[in-house]
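Reading group handout, session on sequence-to-structure problems. Before we discuss, look at one worked example. The prompt was deliberately terse, the way you'd type it at a terminal:

> structure Glycerophosphodiester phosphodiesterase domain containing 5b

The input record follows.
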Amino acid sequence: MVKHQPLQVYERQLCLSCITGIYGCRWKRYQRSHDDTTKWELLWSFILLFTFFLLLVWFYFWWEAHNDYNEFNWFLYNRSGEWSDGTVPILATTAAGFTYIAFLIVLAFCHIALGQQLNLHWLHKIGVTAALLTTIVGVISVNQTWGQEWDVIPISLQATGPFLHIGALAAITALSWIVAGQVARTEKMVFQIVVVLLYVGVLLALYVVPLYITSPCIMDPSTLKPRPDVIGHQGAPMLAPENTLWSFQRALQMNVTGLETDVAISLDGVPFLMHDRTLRRTTDVEKVFPDRQLDETSHFNWTDLQQLNAGQWFLKYDPFWTVHSLSPHEKDLIANQSVCSLEQLLKLASYHNTTVVFRLRRPPPEHPRYNSWINDTLHAVQQSGVPQSLVMWTPDEHRAQVRQLAPGLIQTSVEKRSPQSLLEYGISRLLLRYNRASTQEIRNFSGSNINLTLYTVNEPWLYSVLWCSGVSSVSSEAPHILKKVPYPIWLMRPDEYCLMWVSADLISFAVVIGIFIFQKYRASGMRSYNPEQIMLSAAVSRSNRDINVMKEKLIFSGQPQ
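And the output record:
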């Protein structure tokens, strides 16, 4: 028997083929399906969505941690013994992974919008799994080695929260097109209710989120305190080798009000400037004293230290990617820098009438200056001729003795204590990492006449948040960047912010309602189109000749074979 079938002519759908082909390798029409997505594929869709949000947080963390990249590289150096910029591979892989996962998410939403069955290809499943596991390993590693840095997320949200809220609201509002389309097309009442409730719950949560967003920059501009002073942390280490005279001179050119450094005691009792426990990273000790390159810094006498070059490493490793911006003259100055003594720094500060704050590291017990380290340091202060009112003294050991020998020194603590406790000990200044003082604590210290300095503040957004919080001063590795911040990046009155987020909520609500109404109307119009009825009407209106031909076909097809 021969059956006559009408030929079907399909219009090419290049866009749909690309969407289904890239996502699930379904390039042909017969490979695609409008059936419900299987439970297995739904599970992979949830894994993909979870990976996307995890990578989003991971990417945001590293974006905002830019303020502390040098600190991270220093941690890596202490573990590996080799200096390298470890943030570069992390940023590259994070950006690549986030872009890849975000692309798959967009394709998945396109499938849903077009009513196509989700079927993630196995190669993509391997990629998603790799991205998920790599990110989890990264989170665990950071938590173990650099756990304090997680505080940058809530701190940065004080600067970005109001704007991230608007962005999230716009994204969820746009998502209503897909949600409304799904609800309008499906005939399952339970599915409709669940989807609508989930979407409305997320939307309402976003509408009320601003009630819980707190930022010191949402304030009356008339109550803004004076611009915080900037202290050069190790000078200006982005422009010159850290803890060298040229670095401090560059910081002074950026109008800093103070200089901060780290002090060690040499074998013969000379206080000198050095951050690390060894000399390998910031000097050429491997070349001059190859057998002593792993010795602690305090095990060298001052004569040995003066033989070391403390600038060539900066030109070689370019730790802040700034060497290309230096002039040939600056490079020559850097290449000839040597280890700087505390006395040299104090003389420079005295000449410029600039405050100096230093952390004093006690030598190990076997060191000949183990018991005289305080006196050695006080002797260097007195020898320099610097006014005592310009020196911030931080060691807690023998503080009473120091007060008797040098009563004019500014007593400073690096340990977080209550304002009352600090005042009882006669301490008027406090030096803390920026994540160890909340906005309320900053204001409490300010109200108690405790001068609070927070370190290390390199990014304008962080400087702006701390400025709005009322901090007195900050210590920075980038005074040349903060010099360009004459006012907080943004400042908004509470009533202005309230108007902004209420307006955004109302606009979002109106758009969502409009989209749901339009999709319902569009779906009802599609249902009114009945292909079978149209075919029947066309058959009735055909000529008698066509009807006879159809009868002939029916008779022919009904004959036994």
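Points for discussion. First: Residues 240 and 338 are 12 Å apart (CA to CA). Second: The chain has 22 helices and nine strands.
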